[in-house]
Amino acid sequence: MRLILGLVLSCLALGAARAADSATPAPYSPDLADIMAGSQLRQLKLSFAGAQKNWPLAEFEIGQMRKNFADAAQYYPEFDKVPVAKLIKEISEPALDEIAASVKAKDEAGFKKSFARLTEACNSCHQAAGKGFIKIRVPTLSPFSNQVFAPER
Ligand code: HEC
Which of 76, 89, 96, 131 is deepest in the core (most CB within 10 A)? Predict the structure, then answer.
């Protein structure tokens, strides 16, 4: 009897250990604030790329930011009752289209103007979301001393 009980218990223990081993974590779903931290990084790099007329880098950063916003809209179509997907479609995407056009045209003045508009779009959504204390501005200094923003010559 004891032997059987022992066997049963060790089988159970083995099963539990196996289950723990093979337990896969739930698929990773990013926090909205983490997606936003990504767009903050892109906003900064985009600013320096544009200021130094590195148009290929600017185009790349716009693409990355579009992906950030697409993720935000997909994972958080509504966040704290804020229609994130709708606001992205109505304010961020037009601002991104405008800046993309200025990059394509290598239009420095147009870039500056549309970059300001893009930055305003960040803040208008933060205000709508009751997070007006997250205030984005045109960056003045790059913390990325490990990346060259000037274009190849
Ligand atoms: C459609 C709405 C919307 C737009 C557009 C938007 N944000 Fe956000 N952002 C949010 C919300 C909502 C939060 C707060 C998330 C939370 O409470 O977890 C946030 C948070 C943030 C944060 C805080 C992240 C942290 O952990 O410190 C930063 C930085 C940020 N946004 C940057 C940006 C930048 C830069 C842009 C524009 C290029 C932008 N956001 C555009 C909705 C938006």
Answer: 96
